[in-house]
Amino acid sequence: MVYSRLARRLRATGKQSFADYLDELENGSGEEWQDFINALTTNLTSFYREAHHFPVLADHLRKLRGQPRINIWCCAASTGEEPYSIAMTALEAAGGGNSPVRILATDIDTKVLDAARAASYPEESVSKLETDIVRKHFLRGNGANTGFVRVRPEVAGLVTFRPLNLLSPTWPLRAGFDVIFCRNVMIYFDKLTQLALLRRFAPLLNPGGLLFVGHSENFSQARDVFTLLGKTVYEVVPEAACKQGARPGNA
Ligand SMILES: C[S@@+](CC[C@H](N)C(=O)[O-])C[C@H]1O[C@@H](n2cnc3c(N)ncnc32)[C@H](O)[C@@H]1O
Fold this sequence. Notes:
The protein is of the alpha/beta class. It has helices at residues 2-13, 18-27, 32-40, 53-63, 81-93, 110-118, 131-137, 153-156, 191-201; strands at residues 70-74, 101-107, 120-122, 138-140, 148-151, 159-163, 177-182, 205-213, 226-230, 233-236.
């Protein structure tokens, strides 16, 4: 997999061998690093993936009703289907009114973030969604955009995309999130790294804040910071949560 993905970068940069390519990475201008990262990431995602999470999210948002701002961090956002599904859930939970939800959607891969900002997807990507959801939250393309759907501006407007590496020693974020989505990315990290990330997530969450993880991710080793609420949904332990309460301004 690494071979075939980097072979594409060799062709794109005109390098004759992996040794030449690595030399460019290590001793060149530094510009190739982001393309190197982008080439290696796996970005599989879909709208309403792991659908059982979204009713849980909607219930949580209804419980927070009255809060002037609800902050959600989606930290491996890929091409945007996940944060836009969160935004659609927020609009549904708001029952047609304005939603106080703001979603910060981050990923290490700048190419997927560009695709996410464009908010345009092949029609097949919504073919399994309820027709009512598609009608309410997507615009069908015509002319040059035939065969594509675009996320409606009122959905896209709730989401801000920014690059962020979960493995960076510091994150440019303020505490005060009500929900963190971190799905299907921690599987790529070893147990110690996962544990370190969970300990960094906890103080970013408001008391009662939820962490949604992927279907094959189990974090029973972090009981001091997160309690399992249900299938792959965790609540931050009160003592581990942030003390200040919601502070707007991340997204
Ligand atoms: C398999 S996709 C999952 C997307 C989405 N969360 C979902 O469950 O549908 C994994 C995403 O994690 C991102 N990723 C991998 N390593 C990362 C890191 N160190 N920091 C931030 N994002 C990372 C990849 O670029 C990719 O878009």
